[in-house]
Amino acid sequence: QSALTQPASVSGSPGQSITISCTGTSSDVGGYDFVSWYQQHPGKAPKLIIYDVNSRPSGVSNRFSGSKSGYTASLTISGLQAEDEADYYCSSYTSSSTRVFGGGTKVTVL
Amino acid sequence: QVQLVESGGGLVKPGGSLRLSCAASGFTFSDYYMSWIRQAPGKGLEWVSYISGTGSNTNYADAVKGRFTVSRDNARNSLYLQMNSLRADDMAVYYCAKNYGSTRPDYWGQGTLVTVSS
Q1: Which residues partner with B23 through β-bridges?
Q2: Distance from CA of residue B81 to its chain's centroid?
Q3: DSSP of B55-69, one letter per residue?
Q4: Residue A3 half-sphere exposure, CB side, CA atoms within 13 Å?
Q5: Would an 8 Å CB–CB cutoff place A32 in contact with chain B?
């Protein structure tokens, strides 16, 4: 199972919106609405911020939103804040009943 | 609240073995699938394995199949990962996670570092 494809880095100024893409295949992203997104600050464990393409766990800011079209899922961060600077990983259920992650995207707040 | 605490990491020689443990609390452990996910230094996340609440259903990434074994002790609220024939590319921080459904990690521990080096 190959990793999902994410851009290595994305940057934006405070208050701006940024979008991170996550591209897979018909065996993962394209085949199921079970895409999730995780935020990871340096030296910390990942934190779930989006599940099932566009649902937010309780307590996660509504500045985070998700979507999917075809084989590509996307995470949008609106009103970018300094605390959003972190690594972001997408993940999808697969046809082998396993889980696959993206390579990760480093978000920099300028 | 959900707490997951991994232990058992350390330095091991190539070809050696190591057993990781994860102590769980704050939820009914036996009701949930659990996962192991790893992260090599400076790299991304890689799913390793999951196990059902009863332990009857397991699955592994191709990279570890035949070398790693996941197990659990519901009486002790503990998850385990037996790692044999360790290689340099197994070196990583290993996280245990509580799943929603069979595969989706929703809570993660802080991880334990496994170093494979001669």
Answers
A1: B5, B78
A2: 5
A3: S--EEE-TTTTTTEE
A4: 17
A5: no
Structure tokens at A63: 């500045």
Q: For each of chain A's 110 residues, which pLDDT tens digit applies?
A: 789 999 999 999 999 999 999 999 999 999 999 999 999 999 999 999 999 999 999 999 999 999 999 999 999 999 999 999 999 999 999 999 999 999 999 999 99
User: Which of A98, A100, A106 is the mutation pick for testing B, counting most B CBs within 10 A?
Assistant: A98
Is A98 within 8 Å of B103 when comparing Cβ atoms? yes
Helix or strand holding residue B111 (H, E): none
In B, which residues are within 8 Å of A103 by CB distance?
44
